[in-house]
Amino acid sequence: MRSAPPKTASTAQEPAELSPNRGRWITDWRPEDEAFWAGTGKSVAQRNLVFSILSEHIGFSVWTVWSVLVLFMGPNYGISPADKFLLTSLPALVGSVLRIPYTFAVARFGGRNWTVFSAALLLVPTVAAAIAMKPGVSLTTLLAVAALAGVGGGNFASSMANINAFYPDRAKGWALGLNAGGGNVGVAVVQLVGLLVLAVWGKEHPRYVLGVYLPLIILASLGAALFMDNLAGVRNDKRGMHDVLRYGDTWFVSLLYIGTFGSFIGFGFAFGQVLQVQFKSDFPTPIDAAYVTFLGPLVGSLIRPVGGRLADRFGGGTITFWNFVAMAAAGGVVLTASLRNSLPLFLAGFVALFVLSGIGNGSTYKMIPAIFRSRADVEIMAGADAAAAWAKARRLSAALIGVAGAIGAFGGVLVNLAFRQSFLETRNGNAAYIAFIAFYVLCFLVTYLVYIRPRRATVDS
Questions:
Q1: Which of 416, 350, 435, 432 is nearest to 82 (CA)?
Q2: I want to staple 372 with a disulfide (CB 3.0 to 4.6 A). Which of 8, 142, 393, 446 is the partner?
Q3: For residue 16, what pLDDT is reported?
Protein backbone atom coordinates (compact mmCIF):
# COMPACT_ATOMS: atom_id res chain seq x y z
CA MET A 1 0.00 0.00 0.00
CA ARG A 2 1.37 3.43 -0.93
CA SER A 3 2.49 5.59 1.93
CA ALA A 4 1.42 9.23 1.89
CA PRO A 5 3.59 12.28 2.33
CA PRO A 6 3.23 13.92 5.71
CA LYS A 7 0.76 16.79 6.11
CA THR A 8 0.99 19.68 8.50
CA ALA A 9 -1.98 20.76 10.53
CA SER A 10 -2.50 23.86 12.62
CA THR A 11 -5.28 25.30 14.73
CA ALA A 12 -4.35 28.94 14.17
CA GLN A 13 -4.83 30.87 10.98
CA GLU A 14 -1.69 32.96 11.17
CA PRO A 15 -1.01 35.56 8.51
CA ALA A 16 2.02 35.50 6.28
CA GLU A 17 4.60 37.83 7.77
CA LEU A 18 5.50 40.60 5.32
CA SER A 19 8.57 42.72 5.87
CA PRO A 20 7.97 45.92 3.86
CA ASN A 21 11.41 47.28 4.66
CA ARG A 22 12.94 44.34 2.83
CA GLY A 23 11.06 44.90 -0.40
CA ARG A 24 7.96 42.68 -0.05
CA TRP A 25 9.78 39.65 1.35
CA ILE A 26 7.60 37.06 3.10
CA THR A 27 9.60 35.51 5.92
CA ASP A 28 6.94 33.08 7.16
CA TRP A 29 5.44 30.82 4.48
CA ARG A 30 3.85 27.47 5.35
CA PRO A 31 1.63 26.35 2.46
CA GLU A 32 1.45 22.75 3.69
CA ASP A 33 -0.17 24.03 6.92
CA GLU A 34 -3.84 23.73 5.98
CA ALA A 35 -5.06 26.41 8.40
CA PHE A 36 -2.36 28.85 7.29
CA TRP A 37 -3.21 28.13 3.66
CA ALA A 38 -6.95 28.68 4.17
CA GLY A 39 -6.48 31.80 6.26
CA THR A 40 -3.82 33.70 4.31
CA GLY A 41 -1.66 31.59 2.03
CA LYS A 42 -4.15 30.82 -0.74
CA SER A 43 -5.07 34.44 -1.47
CA VAL A 44 -1.42 35.54 -1.49
CA ALA A 45 -0.44 32.65 -3.77
CA GLN A 46 -3.31 33.38 -6.18
CA ARG A 47 -2.31 37.03 -6.43
CA ASN A 48 1.25 36.05 -7.28
CA LEU A 49 -0.02 33.46 -9.77
CA VAL A 50 -2.04 36.07 -11.70
CA PHE A 51 0.94 38.34 -12.27
CA SER A 52 3.25 35.41 -12.91
CA ILE A 53 0.95 34.26 -15.72
CA LEU A 54 0.88 37.78 -17.17
CA SER A 55 4.67 38.03 -17.23
CA GLU A 56 5.16 34.53 -18.60
CA HIS A 57 2.48 35.07 -21.24
CA ILE A 58 4.24 38.15 -22.58
CA GLY A 59 7.56 36.31 -22.33
CA PHE A 60 6.26 33.56 -24.61
CA SER A 61 4.95 36.17 -27.05
CA VAL A 62 8.30 37.92 -27.26
CA TRP A 63 10.09 34.56 -27.48
CA THR A 64 8.06 33.55 -30.52
CA VAL A 65 7.58 36.98 -32.10
CA TRP A 66 9.98 36.05 -34.90
CA SER A 67 7.53 33.41 -36.09
CA VAL A 68 5.38 36.45 -36.95
CA LEU A 69 8.08 38.89 -38.06
CA VAL A 70 9.36 36.54 -40.77
CA LEU A 71 5.92 36.70 -42.38
CA PHE A 72 6.52 40.42 -42.97
CA MET A 73 9.80 39.79 -44.80
CA GLY A 74 9.03 40.05 -48.49
CA PRO A 75 11.50 39.82 -51.39
CA ASN A 76 12.81 43.32 -50.59
CA TYR A 77 14.45 41.91 -47.45
CA GLY A 78 16.53 39.45 -49.46
CA ILE A 79 16.03 36.73 -46.84
CA SER A 80 15.53 33.19 -48.17
CA PRO A 81 13.06 30.67 -46.65
CA ALA A 82 16.03 28.69 -45.28
CA ASP A 83 17.36 31.83 -43.59
CA LYS A 84 13.94 32.43 -42.03
CA PHE A 85 14.12 29.02 -40.36
CA LEU A 86 17.47 30.10 -38.88
CA LEU A 87 15.83 33.26 -37.55
CA THR A 88 13.26 31.18 -35.70
CA SER A 89 15.80 28.59 -34.51
CA LEU A 90 18.00 31.05 -32.61
CA PRO A 91 15.39 32.30 -30.10
CA ALA A 92 14.46 28.68 -29.38
CA LEU A 93 18.11 27.80 -28.76
CA VAL A 94 18.84 30.78 -26.50
CA GLY A 95 15.59 30.26 -24.59
CA SER A 96 16.39 26.61 -23.88
CA VAL A 97 19.89 27.49 -22.61
CA LEU A 98 18.58 30.26 -20.33
CA ARG A 99 16.04 28.06 -18.59
CA ILE A 100 18.52 26.59 -16.12
CA PRO A 101 19.99 29.91 -14.85
CA TYR A 102 16.51 31.43 -14.79
CA THR A 103 15.37 28.58 -12.54
CA PHE A 104 18.13 29.38 -10.03
CA ALA A 105 17.50 33.14 -10.21
CA VAL A 106 14.25 32.94 -8.23
CA ALA A 107 15.94 31.74 -5.05
CA ARG A 108 18.94 34.01 -5.58
CA PHE A 109 17.09 37.28 -6.14
CA GLY A 110 13.51 36.61 -5.05
CA GLY A 111 10.51 35.65 -7.20
CA ARG A 112 9.06 39.16 -7.30
CA ASN A 113 12.38 40.85 -7.94
CA TRP A 114 13.33 38.47 -10.73
CA THR A 115 9.90 38.75 -12.35
CA VAL A 116 10.22 42.55 -12.38
CA PHE A 117 13.69 42.31 -13.94
CA SER A 118 12.97 39.51 -16.41
CA ALA A 119 9.77 41.22 -17.59
CA ALA A 120 11.55 44.55 -18.07
CA LEU A 121 14.36 42.75 -19.90
CA LEU A 122 11.87 41.88 -22.64
CA LEU A 123 12.13 45.51 -23.73
CA VAL A 124 15.63 44.80 -25.10
CA PRO A 125 14.69 42.27 -27.84
CA THR A 126 11.48 44.16 -28.60
CA VAL A 127 13.15 47.54 -29.12
CA ALA A 128 16.06 45.93 -30.97
CA ALA A 129 13.68 44.18 -33.37
CA ALA A 130 11.78 47.42 -33.95
CA ILE A 131 15.04 49.10 -34.96
CA ALA A 132 16.28 46.23 -37.13
CA MET A 133 13.09 45.37 -39.04
CA LYS A 134 13.55 47.19 -42.34
CA PRO A 135 14.43 46.14 -45.89
CA GLY A 136 18.15 45.93 -46.60
CA VAL A 137 19.24 44.94 -43.09
CA SER A 138 21.84 42.19 -43.10
CA LEU A 139 21.08 38.61 -42.15
CA THR A 140 23.81 38.76 -39.50
CA THR A 141 22.10 41.69 -37.80
CA LEU A 142 18.73 39.96 -37.91
CA LEU A 143 20.20 36.78 -36.43
CA ALA A 144 21.78 38.71 -33.57
CA VAL A 145 18.54 40.53 -32.83
CA ALA A 146 16.47 37.35 -33.08
CA ALA A 147 18.77 35.65 -30.58
CA LEU A 148 17.92 38.36 -28.03
CA ALA A 149 14.30 37.19 -28.06
CA GLY A 150 15.48 34.02 -26.33
CA VAL A 151 15.22 35.80 -22.98
CA GLY A 152 11.45 35.35 -23.29
CA GLY A 153 11.93 31.59 -23.24
CA GLY A 154 13.76 31.75 -19.93
CA ASN A 155 10.75 33.36 -18.25
CA PHE A 156 8.90 30.04 -18.22
CA ALA A 157 11.50 28.39 -15.99
CA SER A 158 11.69 31.17 -13.40
CA SER A 159 7.91 31.59 -13.38
CA MET A 160 7.32 27.88 -12.77
CA ALA A 161 9.99 27.72 -10.06
CA ASN A 162 8.44 30.72 -8.32
CA ILE A 163 4.84 29.48 -8.38
CA ASN A 164 5.98 26.00 -7.34
CA ALA A 165 7.29 27.54 -4.10
CA PHE A 166 4.01 29.33 -3.34
CA TYR A 167 1.68 26.32 -3.55
CA PRO A 168 1.30 23.20 -1.38
CA ASP A 169 1.92 19.81 -2.96
CA ARG A 170 -1.82 19.10 -3.11
CA ALA A 171 -2.44 22.19 -5.28
CA LYS A 172 0.74 22.39 -7.36
CA GLY A 173 -0.61 20.47 -10.37
CA TRP A 174 -3.47 22.83 -11.13
CA ALA A 175 -1.50 25.99 -10.32
CA LEU A 176 1.46 24.98 -12.47
CA GLY A 177 -0.90 23.90 -15.24
CA LEU A 178 -2.58 27.32 -15.25
CA ASN A 179 0.78 29.05 -15.15
CA ALA A 180 2.19 27.00 -18.03
CA GLY A 181 -0.99 27.12 -20.10
CA GLY A 182 -1.37 30.87 -19.65
CA GLY A 183 2.19 31.33 -20.82
CA ASN A 184 1.85 28.97 -23.78
CA VAL A 185 -1.16 30.93 -25.05
CA GLY A 186 1.25 33.79 -25.70
CA VAL A 187 2.42 31.89 -28.79
CA ALA A 188 -1.06 32.10 -30.30
CA VAL A 189 -1.74 35.65 -29.13
CA VAL A 190 1.35 37.13 -30.78
CA GLN A 191 0.25 35.49 -34.03
CA LEU A 192 -3.22 37.01 -33.65
CA VAL A 193 -1.57 40.40 -33.14
CA GLY A 194 0.44 39.80 -36.30
CA LEU A 195 -2.76 38.87 -38.16
CA LEU A 196 -4.42 42.08 -37.00
CA VAL A 197 -1.49 44.22 -38.15
CA LEU A 198 -1.30 42.45 -41.51
CA ALA A 199 -5.05 42.78 -42.07
CA VAL A 200 -5.33 46.44 -41.08
CA TRP A 201 -1.98 48.02 -41.96
CA GLY A 202 -0.26 45.51 -44.24
CA LYS A 203 3.13 43.79 -44.37
CA GLU A 204 5.06 47.09 -44.48
CA HIS A 205 4.47 47.68 -40.75
CA PRO A 206 6.03 44.88 -38.65
CA ARG A 207 6.95 47.46 -36.02
CA TYR A 208 3.27 47.76 -35.11
CA VAL A 209 3.40 44.21 -33.72
CA LEU A 210 6.33 45.16 -31.52
CA GLY A 211 4.62 48.41 -30.57
CA VAL A 212 1.69 46.48 -29.10
CA TYR A 213 4.03 44.69 -26.70
CA LEU A 214 6.07 47.64 -25.45
CA PRO A 215 3.35 48.95 -23.07
CA LEU A 216 2.37 45.39 -22.10
CA ILE A 217 5.95 44.65 -21.04
CA ILE A 218 5.98 47.78 -18.88
CA LEU A 219 2.60 46.82 -17.42
CA ALA A 220 3.82 43.31 -16.54
CA SER A 221 6.94 44.66 -14.86
CA LEU A 222 5.00 47.26 -12.87
CA GLY A 223 2.37 44.70 -11.90
CA ALA A 224 5.04 42.37 -10.56
CA ALA A 225 6.67 45.22 -8.64
CA LEU A 226 3.41 46.32 -7.05
CA PHE A 227 1.58 43.06 -6.39
CA MET A 228 4.02 40.15 -6.21
CA ASP A 229 6.10 38.93 -3.26
CA ASN A 230 9.46 37.31 -2.57
CA LEU A 231 9.67 34.18 -0.41
CA ALA A 232 12.61 34.29 1.97
CA GLY A 233 12.62 30.53 2.55
CA VAL A 234 13.26 29.49 -1.06
CA ARG A 235 16.65 27.91 -1.60
CA ASN A 236 18.45 26.74 -4.69
CA ASP A 237 19.03 23.02 -4.72
CA LYS A 238 22.11 22.75 -6.91
CA ARG A 239 22.84 19.40 -5.36
CA GLY A 240 19.39 18.19 -6.41
CA MET A 241 20.07 19.32 -9.96
CA HIS A 242 23.38 17.47 -9.87
CA ASP A 243 21.92 14.36 -8.25
CA VAL A 244 19.01 14.02 -10.65
CA LEU A 245 21.38 13.84 -13.62
CA ARG A 246 22.52 10.43 -12.36
CA TYR A 247 19.08 8.90 -12.87
CA GLY A 248 18.18 7.28 -16.16
CA ASP A 249 14.64 8.62 -15.71
CA THR A 250 15.98 12.14 -16.16
CA TRP A 251 17.11 11.40 -19.69
CA PHE A 252 14.08 9.32 -20.59
CA VAL A 253 11.65 12.01 -19.44
CA SER A 254 13.69 14.75 -21.14
CA LEU A 255 13.56 12.77 -24.38
CA LEU A 256 9.77 12.55 -24.07
CA TYR A 257 9.51 16.27 -23.33
CA ILE A 258 11.50 17.05 -26.48
CA GLY A 259 8.75 15.18 -28.31
CA THR A 260 5.91 17.09 -26.62
CA PHE A 261 7.01 20.62 -25.72
CA GLY A 262 9.75 20.62 -28.36
CA SER A 263 7.11 19.84 -30.98
CA PHE A 264 4.75 22.50 -29.64
CA ILE A 265 7.25 25.35 -29.59
CA GLY A 266 9.03 24.22 -32.76
CA PHE A 267 5.81 24.00 -34.76
CA GLY A 268 4.71 27.31 -33.24
CA PHE A 269 7.83 28.95 -34.66
CA ALA A 270 7.72 27.18 -38.04
CA PHE A 271 4.07 26.61 -39.00
CA GLY A 272 3.52 29.90 -40.85
CA GLN A 273 6.71 29.50 -42.86
CA VAL A 274 5.91 25.90 -43.75
CA LEU A 275 2.52 26.92 -45.11
CA GLN A 276 3.97 29.71 -47.20
CA VAL A 277 6.75 27.54 -48.64
CA GLN A 278 4.91 24.25 -49.13
CA PHE A 279 1.51 25.63 -50.17
CA LYS A 280 2.60 28.85 -51.81
CA SER A 281 -0.34 28.97 -54.22
CA ASP A 282 -2.82 28.69 -51.33
CA PHE A 283 -0.97 31.23 -49.17
CA PRO A 284 0.43 33.81 -51.60
CA THR A 285 0.58 36.58 -48.97
CA PRO A 286 1.61 36.66 -45.30
CA ILE A 287 -1.92 37.50 -44.19
CA ASP A 288 -3.24 34.32 -45.82
CA ALA A 289 -0.88 32.27 -43.66
CA ALA A 290 -1.57 34.35 -40.57
CA TYR A 291 -5.27 33.51 -40.73
CA VAL A 292 -4.34 29.89 -40.00
CA THR A 293 -1.12 29.83 -37.98
CA PHE A 294 -2.58 30.96 -34.65
CA LEU A 295 -5.07 28.08 -34.46
CA GLY A 296 -2.60 25.29 -33.68
CA PRO A 297 -0.74 27.06 -30.83
CA LEU A 298 -4.05 28.25 -29.38
CA VAL A 299 -5.66 24.83 -29.06
CA GLY A 300 -2.34 23.26 -28.02
CA SER A 301 -2.02 25.77 -25.17
CA LEU A 302 -5.60 25.54 -23.96
CA ILE A 303 -5.61 21.75 -23.89
CA ARG A 304 -2.41 21.40 -21.84
CA PRO A 305 -4.26 21.18 -18.47
CA VAL A 306 -6.41 18.41 -19.98
CA GLY A 307 -3.28 16.31 -20.39
CA GLY A 308 -2.58 16.66 -16.69
CA ARG A 309 -6.16 15.79 -15.76
CA LEU A 310 -6.17 12.72 -18.03
CA ALA A 311 -2.88 11.66 -16.44
CA ASP A 312 -4.45 12.07 -13.00
CA ARG A 313 -7.28 9.81 -14.10
CA PHE A 314 -5.49 7.15 -16.13
CA GLY A 315 -1.80 7.54 -15.26
CA GLY A 316 0.94 9.67 -16.74
CA GLY A 317 2.73 6.81 -18.44
CA THR A 318 -0.42 5.45 -20.09
CA ILE A 319 -1.56 8.82 -21.45
CA THR A 320 1.93 9.70 -22.64
CA PHE A 321 2.28 6.36 -24.43
CA TRP A 322 -1.00 6.60 -26.32
CA ASN A 323 -0.41 10.28 -26.98
CA PHE A 324 2.85 9.49 -28.80
CA VAL A 325 1.11 6.74 -30.76
CA ALA A 326 -1.43 9.34 -31.85
CA MET A 327 1.33 11.86 -32.65
CA ALA A 328 3.03 9.33 -34.92
CA ALA A 329 -0.33 8.75 -36.65
CA ALA A 330 -0.90 12.51 -37.00
CA GLY A 331 2.59 12.85 -38.44
CA GLY A 332 1.63 10.19 -40.96
CA VAL A 333 -1.44 12.24 -41.90
CA VAL A 334 0.76 15.33 -42.45
CA LEU A 335 3.19 13.32 -44.60
CA THR A 336 0.34 11.84 -46.67
CA ALA A 337 -1.18 15.29 -47.14
CA SER A 338 2.19 16.66 -48.25
CA LEU A 339 2.66 13.86 -50.80
CA ARG A 340 -0.86 14.42 -52.14
CA ASN A 341 -0.63 18.21 -51.90
CA SER A 342 -3.87 18.22 -49.89
CA LEU A 343 -4.13 21.41 -47.85
CA PRO A 344 -7.25 20.43 -45.80
CA LEU A 345 -5.66 17.14 -44.75
CA PHE A 346 -2.37 18.90 -44.04
CA LEU A 347 -4.05 21.45 -41.77
CA ALA A 348 -6.04 18.74 -39.98
CA GLY A 349 -2.88 16.72 -39.32
CA PHE A 350 -0.90 19.71 -38.09
CA VAL A 351 -3.66 20.95 -35.78
CA ALA A 352 -3.85 17.41 -34.38
CA LEU A 353 -0.09 17.55 -33.71
CA PHE A 354 -0.54 20.81 -31.80
CA VAL A 355 -3.40 19.35 -29.75
CA LEU A 356 -1.49 16.17 -28.96
CA SER A 357 1.70 18.04 -28.09
CA GLY A 358 -0.34 20.07 -25.60
CA ILE A 359 -1.82 16.95 -24.02
CA GLY A 360 1.62 15.36 -23.90
CA ASN A 361 3.08 18.40 -22.16
CA GLY A 362 0.68 17.90 -19.27
CA SER A 363 0.95 14.12 -19.07
CA THR A 364 4.75 14.05 -19.27
CA TYR A 365 5.09 16.55 -16.43
CA LYS A 366 2.63 14.46 -14.42
CA MET A 367 4.97 11.47 -14.76
CA ILE A 368 7.82 13.26 -12.96
CA PRO A 369 6.49 13.27 -9.37
CA ALA A 370 4.99 9.80 -9.91
CA ILE A 371 8.41 8.40 -10.86
CA PHE A 372 10.02 9.63 -7.66
CA ARG A 373 7.03 8.71 -5.50
CA SER A 374 7.51 5.18 -6.82
CA ARG A 375 11.18 5.28 -5.89
CA ALA A 376 10.29 6.63 -2.43
CA ASP A 377 7.89 3.73 -1.87
CA VAL A 378 10.63 1.25 -2.70
CA GLU A 379 13.02 2.93 -0.27
CA ILE A 380 10.39 3.03 2.49
CA MET A 381 9.57 -0.66 2.01
CA ALA A 382 13.30 -1.34 2.32
CA GLY A 383 13.33 0.39 5.71
CA ALA A 384 14.17 4.00 4.88
CA ASP A 385 12.69 6.85 6.90
CA ALA A 386 9.41 7.87 5.24
CA ALA A 387 9.79 11.63 5.78
CA ALA A 388 13.32 11.60 4.36
CA ALA A 389 12.25 9.50 1.37
CA TRP A 390 9.37 11.85 0.57
CA ALA A 391 11.59 14.92 0.94
CA LYS A 392 14.11 13.38 -1.44
CA ALA A 393 11.33 12.59 -3.93
CA ARG A 394 10.10 16.19 -3.89
CA ARG A 395 13.65 17.53 -4.27
CA LEU A 396 14.44 15.31 -7.25
CA SER A 397 11.05 15.99 -8.87
CA ALA A 398 11.63 19.74 -8.73
CA ALA A 399 15.11 19.32 -10.20
CA LEU A 400 13.88 17.10 -13.03
CA ILE A 401 11.13 19.59 -13.93
CA GLY A 402 13.85 22.20 -14.47
CA VAL A 403 16.14 19.90 -16.46
CA ALA A 404 13.35 18.51 -18.65
CA GLY A 405 12.01 22.00 -19.33
CA ALA A 406 15.38 23.17 -20.62
CA ILE A 407 16.09 20.09 -22.72
CA GLY A 408 12.54 19.96 -24.04
CA ALA A 409 12.74 23.56 -25.28
CA PHE A 410 15.79 22.55 -27.33
CA GLY A 411 13.41 20.39 -29.36
CA GLY A 412 12.10 23.61 -30.89
CA VAL A 413 15.55 24.19 -32.38
CA LEU A 414 15.63 20.67 -33.83
CA VAL A 415 12.20 21.08 -35.44
CA ASN A 416 13.20 24.29 -37.22
CA LEU A 417 16.55 22.89 -38.34
CA ALA A 418 14.82 19.77 -39.65
CA PHE A 419 12.46 21.90 -41.71
CA ARG A 420 15.32 24.06 -42.99
CA GLN A 421 17.37 21.08 -44.12
CA SER A 422 14.38 19.34 -45.68
CA PHE A 423 13.34 22.37 -47.73
CA LEU A 424 16.95 23.07 -48.76
CA GLU A 425 17.52 19.56 -50.07
CA THR A 426 14.11 18.50 -51.39
CA ARG A 427 12.06 21.73 -51.67
CA ASN A 428 9.40 20.19 -49.41
CA GLY A 429 9.04 19.15 -45.78
CA ASN A 430 8.65 15.41 -46.34
CA ALA A 431 12.04 14.47 -44.93
CA ALA A 432 11.26 16.47 -41.80
CA TYR A 433 7.86 14.79 -41.40
CA ILE A 434 9.49 11.36 -41.67
CA ALA A 435 12.01 12.37 -39.01
CA PHE A 436 9.22 13.54 -36.69
CA ILE A 437 7.29 10.28 -37.14
CA ALA A 438 10.43 8.25 -36.39
CA PHE A 439 11.04 10.29 -33.25
CA TYR A 440 7.47 9.83 -32.01
CA VAL A 441 7.80 6.08 -32.58
CA LEU A 442 10.99 6.13 -30.51
CA CYS A 443 9.16 8.03 -27.78
CA PHE A 444 6.23 5.64 -27.50
CA LEU A 445 8.61 2.67 -27.51
CA VAL A 446 10.64 4.25 -24.69
CA THR A 447 7.46 5.02 -22.76
CA TYR A 448 6.25 1.45 -23.12
CA LEU A 449 9.54 -0.27 -22.38
CA VAL A 450 10.48 1.92 -19.42
CA TYR A 451 7.17 3.00 -17.88
CA ILE A 452 4.30 0.78 -19.07
CA ARG A 453 5.64 -2.71 -18.55
CA PRO A 454 4.39 -4.34 -15.32
CA ARG A 455 7.64 -3.84 -13.42
CA ARG A 456 7.25 -0.04 -13.71
CA ALA A 457 3.46 0.15 -13.52
CA THR A 458 3.66 2.17 -10.27
CA VAL A 459 4.55 5.21 -12.35
CA ASP A 460 0.89 5.40 -13.35
CA SER A 461 -0.35 5.56 -9.79
A1: 416
A2: 393
A3: 52
